[in-house]
Amino acid sequence: MTKTAFIFPGQASQYVGMAKDLYESSEKVKELYQQASEILGYDLMDVSFNGPLEKLTETMYTQPAILVHSLAILAELGGNIGSPAFVAGHSLGEYSALASAGVLNPRDAILAVRERSRLMQAACDASDGTMAAVIGCEGEKLEGLIKEASREGVLQPANFNSPGQVALSGDRKAIEKAVELAKKYGARKAIPLQVGGAFHSPLMLPAPAELGKVLDGISFMPANVKVVTNVEAIGETDPAKLKQLLID
Predict the structure, then answer these.
(1) Whether 91 is catalytic
(2) Which CATH architecture has domain 5-124+206-247?
(3) pTM for the full predicted model
(4) Which of 3.20.20.70, 3.10.290.10, 3.30.950.10, 3.30.70.250 would CATH assign to domain 127-198?
(5) Torsion angle of the four alpha carbons 102, 96, 113, 247, in this order, in degrees rounded to the nearest 10
(6) Is 200 annotated in the active site?
(7) One of 37, 70, 91, 169 is an active-site residue; which one?
(8) Following DSSP, what letter does each residue of 200-223 receive, concatenated?
(9) pLDDT exceeds 90 at position 131
(10) Helix spans in the chain (H)
């Protein structure tokens, strides 16, 4: 027996022109983008379709753009792709996953991400941070790389994406040093990520408490399929637990 999972992207997957084809061919997608623009207070279509990339990469624009792109795909495909056994999302993508599982309605998902992106943008503006993916470096070698590069500033693992691939996050100088030193510690490759800040690092600490206040004003429903969360990497359906894990 085969099972299907829906996995939704997070930041660094944005590109100029994203969802333009869907917008031009679907009335449902047009309505979604128009609703999103009203909620966000700016023209999401213009940012998503026309850029420039520098603007689209700013956290306050990137997060809503990626979320609404995912919601547009779900709206367009409808029931044609069947029901998944699990859903998951990479960081920001967990909001898309929650929408697909019926935990958040599209409007509330956009509202939540609007505030999340603003809070994280403020944290980004208060520091000079970024991220990088390191491939082929694990265990003691990874620890050694982080220890040496962190002499330049805050640096830590942010996402363990798969065996042999980890995203690092922290001060820009520390990330640049980690990329420079990666091969010395056995990595096959180190890639700077197109993100607007040091996500999942101590440089984001001002954001969670305020995000919790935002989420308290939004209705969370029990998930109709298991949501595999970023924090625990196991399936969850309880709405209160899912809300707390977003903050975590």
Answers:
(1) yes
(2) 3-Layer(aba) Sandwich (3.40)
(3) 0.87
(4) 3.30.70.250
(5) 80
(6) yes
(7) 91
(8) TSGGGTTHHHHHHHHHHTS--PPP
(9) yes
(10) 20-25, 27-40, 44-50, 53-56, 59-77, 93-100, 106-125, 139-149, 172-181, 207-216, 239-247
